[in-house]
Amino acid sequence: CLSPELIHLHQIKGKIVVVVDIFRASSTMVTALANGVQCILPVRDLEQCRAYKKEGWKIAGERNGQQADGFDLGNSPLAYTNRQLSGEKIAMTTTNGTRAISLVQNEASEVLIGAFLNINALANYLKAMNNDILVVCAGWKGRFNVEDALFAGAFSMAIGRKHECDATLAMEALFQSSKNNLAGFLQKASHAKRLQNHHLEKDIDFCLTLNQYDEIVFLQNNLLKLK
Ligand code: MLT
């Protein structure tokens, strides 16, 4: 479990990478594809993403937790839950989540998207694999954030592999101590407070819902799709 900025490319090579950004990019990606979106193109740059509008893509852009100017969508998973965007292709850029994907996609053997929303389905899928698995926590602008670490701890426990990683041990303990009230534990977390300031409390609760979906989201030819 590492923050994108701490990763050296040799740590990624040949590994299965699970990218997680609980608030909210990976939660939104899983929700969108589970609700019929055809595919998601993660884009690092706002202007590059805007250009896809002319090619018939819906464009989703978020910076600092808010919808970016000139975009069809921000980064709320709740924008996709009643399948109103089913069949659409979405070009998406977010502050941290799409950036984390761009940092690992060329070296990883496979990139998957992790969220509490599909955590057991993802763990059950990866249990059968022998590869090393690296959980990449998107964090916030290069800094650690606690919700992604909680996912990493929960995911490690769900997949049940032996490990000798102190960071993983710490995150498992963190999840064990807070799993009965994740929202309460995260009230003081920086990104939860940022979303509360934007009156996005419903997003927080939805992103912390476990096993809402059984779908697995992976990257194929630079596009996020359902397995
Ligand atoms: C991100 O990618 O950093 C987050 O999803 C930001 C957000 O949507 O609040």
TrEMBL record:
PANTHER family: 2-PHOSPHOSULFOLACTATE PHOSPHATASE-RELATED
Catalyses which reaction(s): (2R)-O-phospho-3-sulfolactate + H2O = (2R)-3-sulfolactate + phosphate
Domain of life: Bacteria
UniProt cofactor(s): Mg(2+)
Organism listed in the record: Cyclobacterium plantarum
A Pfam family the protein falls into: 2-ph_phosp
Keywords of this entry: Hydrolase, Magnesium
HAMAP family: ComB
EC number annotated for this UniProt entry: 3.1.3.71
InterPro entries: ComB-like, ComB-like_sf
Protein name in UniProt: Probable 2-phosphosulfolactate phosphatase
Family classification: Belongs to the ComB family.
Family annotation (Gene3D superfamilies): ComB-like
